[in-house]
């Protein structure tokens, strides 16, 4: 099977994609993952209403930068006018693919009838898709959703069929309902019903963390590609590793020293992008994940202590020195 996948006229150079994740897939992270071989890394979720008003923190989430093989902007909202304007702004910013969020389960999103709440209103979801497609006819629009709102309403096949009819070029399905949040195992086999309903590419998402789980997800779902979410935390090379597994190629994961360089480069890019104070605060989620994936300490309690100590530091120089010390000296123990 070819490792390339066409979304409309856009060729995506791989079948292992990295999901849009709030607080994770900002520009520094996308650059880090792209540098390590990821073919597709979406932006954080961008709220259309605030995007159209030019709110700085929201505009920053859609930031375009050098070193990205593909620019994918994910939009969220429930007003067709705002969705259309968000799509036009994303296109103007350089988006090559625009993704609509019908899957976020967070209460602050569903509480304003956005994200996965839209699966309870397929007619509105269809109007939003039509608004985006009509607003940017030259740019492919995709949709990310869940299986449905709950076990009694698994309507992903219906919404996917509506998406295809409205000109959407691909759909991604997380193998859980909104009511499950992230509990239980993702049901990859349930995605097969979506694949049977449409001819556009289908991407399967949920619990995909390595080559074995990616192969199993593709086999169970019949999907065309996989999307990695939480499995990328602290491992921005994982998409490339999964890609190699799907292609039957050897992949050598970064050794300890290379992982340290990856973490430090990512940290410094975050500081440059946001400024020291905000960059350090935003990077802490990544910092904790890098420590969790560090070669040592082996003891769980020591690792928790190191993570806690590093994530409490307020000076970027201290963070860098502490990370280097932890990485290069297995006996290092940062005081809790």
Fold blueprint:
Elements: E1 5-7, E2 10-12, E3 16-18, H1 27-35, E4 42-47, H2 48-53, H3 56-61, E5 72-76, H4 80-93, E6 97-102, H5 107-110, H6 122-135, E7 141-146, H7 156-165, E8 170-174, H8 192-197, E9 202-205, H9 211-221, E10 225-228, H10 238-247, H11 256-274, H12 276-292, H13 300-312, H14 316-328
Parallel strand pairs: 3-10, 4-5, 5-6, 6-7, 7-8, 8-9, 9-10
Antiparallel strand pairs: 1-2
Any overview of this molecule?
- The protein has 336 residues and is of the alpha/beta class.
- The protein folds into two domains: 5-247, Alpha-Beta Barrel (TIM Barrel), CATH 3.20.20.70; 256-328.
- The protein is 45% helix and 13% strand.
Concise summary:
By secondary structure, this protein is of the alpha/beta class.
